[in-house]
Fold these 2 entries.
Entry 1:
Amino acid sequence: MKPKRLAELVIAPPELKSQLQRMLDRPHPPQSLLLVGAPGTGKRTLARAWVAGWLCPQRTSEGHCGICEVCTKWSETGEHPDLRILAPTPDQIKIDAVRETRQWMNFAPAVAPFRFVILEQAHRLNPAAANALLKMLEEPPDRYHFVLTAPASDLLLQTILSRCRVVRLGRIPTDELARYLMSVRGLEEGEARAVAELADGAVGNALRWTEPPAESETETDSKRTKKSEPTPSELESLRALLSLFEDLSRAHLEEALRLAERFREICKALEGVDEERSARSALATGLEYLILWYRDSIAVSGGAHTVRFQTHLDALQHLSQRFSSHDRFGDLQAITQARRAILGNANAQIVTETLFARLLSER
Ligand SMILES: [Zn+2]
């Protein structure tokens, strides 16, 4: 995968981007950087862009030059002699991979000024691998540096954490994300807006959903190919979910069971597109979108600009006129409880049917 230039990325919060860019002006990178952010917030893309900046002998605060010999090495082959990327296979980073990397670390950088190890999903290091990594972090050879990524910092050993400079990625505002999708993906405004609303600020998800087929075919990171394939069905499923919420906002009580069934079917499809997603976490994801929907129905009274799903404004206004805000606050609580029950061991059919019947009963 050809790395993007740091300056071309959208990163939240904005001051984070200038911070990372200013680092590139210094003579040396920090020893170890940990990128923390929810799934889909672009940690992987950012790690590569930032590392590409340091590997380029002609780097500027904008990132790597993209044209020198060192940069083109990466672009042509998808690999770089001075970079190692460790990722879970399939769900753990094992000690063998860390040991092999330790061997590689016996040599000086081949072409770049530094050598980097990127550890994706560092929380998936198994205990032996985590201890081996810790030794490397404690006594790194000269000109070797590390970038780790994880969804949350408290998933890592405290001893690893204390050796890293932690950078926390946030969510991109919907308007900004929509503008970015228009510029990098050439989407028209309405389409870009709809995708940005569904991405909920996670730029990595938005880019993955709108990836042109050609780009993923040239994907050479074999370990991650499965996850990087275009998954229009995920976007389609999320759209189906929003269209279900529209129907729900206008439906009668007797339609509750049918809608609950459709909801479970859509969540089933969401489960299918992500190998790491369980049936329960797919249902929880569906309910998280329902929480956003009900939050929006409450925000509607504050003016359209406060609403996330602006492309569904009519249905949201309908919902807000149909039930009092007191009722909708109660509903929001009920959805949150249903989500918790699903993540526990509750029966998904009973929970969703009870919930949808409640949402549709006139009070
Ligand atoms: Zn370069």
Note: The pocket of zinc ion is lined by residues 56, 58, 64-65, 68, 70-71 (CB under 6 Å).
Entry 2:
Amino acid sequence: MEVVNRYVVIKHHVDGAPTEADLEVREATARWAPGSGQVMVRNRFLSIDPYQLNRMKRSSASHLAVNGIVPGESITAYAAGEVVASDCDEYKEGDLVAGMLGWEDYTLFRPSPGMLMSKIDAGGDGFPLSHHLSALGTSGMTAYAGLFEVGKPEKGEKVFVSAASGSVGSLVGQFAKLAGCYVVGCAGSQVKVNLLKEKLGFDDAFNYKEEPDLKSALKRYFPDGIDIYYENVGGEMLEAALANMNTYGRVAVSGVMSEYTGSGRRAVPNMEQVIYKRITIRGFLAWDFLAKFDEFNAVIGDWIRQGKVQVLEDVSDGLDSVPSAFAALFRGDNIGKKLVKLA
Ligand SMILES: NC(=O)c1ccc[n+]([C@@H]2O[C@H](COP(=O)([O-])OP(=O)(O)OC[C@H]3O[C@@H](n4cnc5c(N)ncnc54)[C@H](OP(=O)(O)O)[C@@H]3O)[C@@H](O)[C@H]2O)c1
């Protein structure tokens, strides 16, 4: 089987904030052959994730965990689609899958143990395919693992979430409410702040761009201190959160958006605060919890069915929209999970 495959590349390494012009769409023939042991997937939804920027850099600590992206070469990415040809018993033509595929129309993969690929029960689970890249995909896994396995919330504890209207943050806040916590989120616009309070049930929320002094802003929202900080942005926000943490507070470091582009300043945590308040700061990767993926998903799926968790998705159309969709993440243009839908 031979198809014309359109795929996204970076033209060169990207070391600052990404622009649409850093990426382009190319095309080549993709071939699947019987006896190859390969599966060919026609991608339907592509996941647009901030961590891809770190892969695009010439050098980044992220390369310790995931390969850097080579200019001109196709880009592996989380995606969901339909099997169109298969040379292995596990996958049949017509199966729906979500896992590590690519920013492209078609992806070939060879099944191997430990790879991130799940078969989706078409029609059986009742969820749209896109949810398997958002709340039931890596965003859900990141939010669930970071909050429950790293943050370990107790009922009544105070939780602060940054980038709270984003894909991961919007889930963290809702999960923390379900755990009986008091939850405040920050986001970059009034529209986002209203959404957190009115639709997602956050106890409070604020626009960090309108706060000249983040330390005193957090003091206002947490007069009794923060027990868990779910960290998505880094920089001054981390410093301000540490200054407001309670003794034995936990910081679950999921990401540092403001530091990825190199335009903001890096956090300089006050380590005396960390010592004397016995604060735990722990970085983690969603992949660390891959073995619990199905367990987390069962819980999250039930919450969605019961209407206890709202899934926010922000969908652009067509492969040509990947460059703008990706750059938009770093301007805060998205609300919820940024996805690209392919024809
Ligand atoms: N550890 C893991 O395994 C793992 C897995 C997935 C994601 N993550 C991390 O989780 C975080 C959120 O990822 P996501 O996929 O859910 O993306 P997202 O939150 O849906 O989108 C990124 C958001 O970050 C905010 N932002 C952008 N630049 C910022 C800046 N300079 N300062 C503060 N906020 C900024 C924007 O919202 P505002 O309008 O609020 O600024 C934007 O909407 C990222 O740091 C990501 O790297 C970690």
Note: The longest strand covers residues 76-86.
